[in-house]
Design goal:
Helicase, Ruva Protein, domain 3, alpha+beta, DNA polymerase, domain 1, five-stranded mixed barrel
Length: 192
């Protein structure tokens, strides 16, 4: 297995790169997340994962080892191949993927192109326990969303559109995770 590829960055595209390692150019498929972190033309090191099929040997490259581990976990899920896993890591940051899986956020996983509701649920079910072991990110998993749900119910009763109210409540809880129902409602009323 090729663990990493280090060399001079020769070609850089949003979906793949070519790295020259002592005269041999390796093409690695990358996510948009990795693409955004790459320098223009310097020596780079990408952690890699090699997939061997009957008709192709394909290398995937990642800026961090944790992104590679998330990719490896994603491709273990039935219905999620390397291309879908790469799309997921292009649509969401590795931290967002970890957070979505850890907090059972089907909506976020389903928002990725090519992933339906059943596959999203399978990803959450299969990876919930495994994803936290890989994570080097500190995640605050909301154990109890009752404050948010109660605040949303109150705001809906007051006539606000649920989707807009939910966005505002999420923003409030991001700033102050320990906010009480009353505090969420008061701050939301100022922003809506």
């Amino acid at each position: 297995m090729i663990s990493h590829v280090q060399g001079r960055l020769v070609e850089k595209n949003p979906t793949d790169v070519v790295i020259d390692c002592n005269g041999v150019g390796y093409r690695l498929n990358i996510s948009l997340n990795t693409y955004s972190q790459l320098p223009d033309s310097e020596t780079v090191k990408l952690f890699s994962h090699l997939i061997i099929r009957e008709d192709a040997h394909t290398l995937y490259g990642f800026m961090t080892a944790s992104e590679r581990e998330i990719f490896r976990l994603l491709i273990t899920v039935s219905g999620v191949g390397p291309m879908t896993a790469r799309t997921m890591l292009s649509s969401l940051t590795p931290e967002q993927v970890i957070e979505a899986i850890a907090s059972d956020d089907v909506k976020t996983i389903k928002s990725v192109k090519g992933i339906g509701i059943k596959t999203a649920q399978r990803v959450l079910l299969d990876l919930k326990d495994k994803i936290l072991k890989v994570s080097d990110v500190s995640i605050s998993i909301p154990q109890n969303n009752t404050n948010k749900n109660e605040a949303l119910s109150a705001l809906e009763t007051l006539g606000f559109v649920r989707k807009k109210a939910e966005q505002v409540c999420d923003a409030i809880l991001k700033e102050n995770p320990e906010a009480s129902v009353e505090m969420i409602i008061k701050l939301a009323l100022k922003r809506l």
